[in-house]
Amino acid sequence: MAIITISREMGSGGQIVARKLANKLEYTLIDGEAILKAAHGHGLSVEAVENADEKPPAFVESLDSNLEIDRHLIEQIVLEQALKGDVIIYGRGGQDLLSGIDNVFRVRIVAPFETRVERWAEREWIDPDLSHILVRKSDQQRAGFIKYYFNRDWNDADYYELTINTTRISTDKAVDLICTGIKETNQCSDSEHKKRLRDLILCKKIEIEILKSKAVHGYHLQTSVNNGKICLQGHVHSDEERQEVYKVLKEQATEYDISDQMKVFAYHINPKEG
After folding, report:
1. Secondary structure (3-state) at 6
2. Which of 75, 192, 219, 240 has CB 3.0 to 4.6 Å from 188, enough for a Cys bridge?
3. pTM of the complete model
4. Which contacts (CB < 8 Å, 24+ apart) does range 74-80 have?
5. CA 176, 181, 183 angle in degrees (round to 5)?
6. Tens of pLDDT, residues 204-233
7. Domains of the chain
């Protein structure tokens, strides 16, 4: 059961490729529309998804905290859909979110900037100058999103199994190339990649609950789940915060071993300074 991720530039035709590919393979397409359908079941409003989806952080503490929770919930949706297999994850940093899983075939859809500007103007029936602004803004937001959350250059071709320039290759040919690539890629067994996905989902649930906790001030932890063990790194600000983290772990993963590498850095909170 394969997982395909499609990273795309605005106006590159990635959406058309993704839809044609989903129809040909009879895979489930996980795009913005699919995430909105699943959002309500995870306590996400339409506005919350729109504000957090593929956006870099807000850098306003109260707003940033809410956006972080919403972003993690979107990632949880993506991971849960990936666990079902035979899916195409369109954007959402899927290629990075699923890093380390061998069953993922990563595709990048690109086109020259001016071509994309022209396409977007024609598609949306807008002025070319406005299209120029929107395409550039989209590039900056998506590149910033990947750089901040995954510390990677969005345009790094080495990270993808296949990069397609849609000014040189038709969408139908692009679909054929991806199908061929999947067949020729060595993939691990379903049980192996499902186990890893379940670990990632559990990790995401733990991170969400810690972020929601009012007893933990700020989030300075790196959490990982692997082979029945939860590893906690980074720092908390008190022993009470450490106990709150343990409370979350007890609620989410009672049968897992814990490797506690957290440090305690005490600090004083001044409400006037925020």
Report:
1. strand
2. 192
3. 0.89
4. 74/35, 74/39, 74/44, 74/49, 75/204, 76/42, 76/201, 76/204, 76/205, 76/208, 77/35, 77/38, 77/39, 77/42, 78/30, 78/35, 79/197, 79/200, 79/201, 79/204, 80/201
5. 100
6. 999 999 999 888 887 788 999 998 899 999
7. 3-188 (3.40.50.300), 213-264 (3.30.1340)
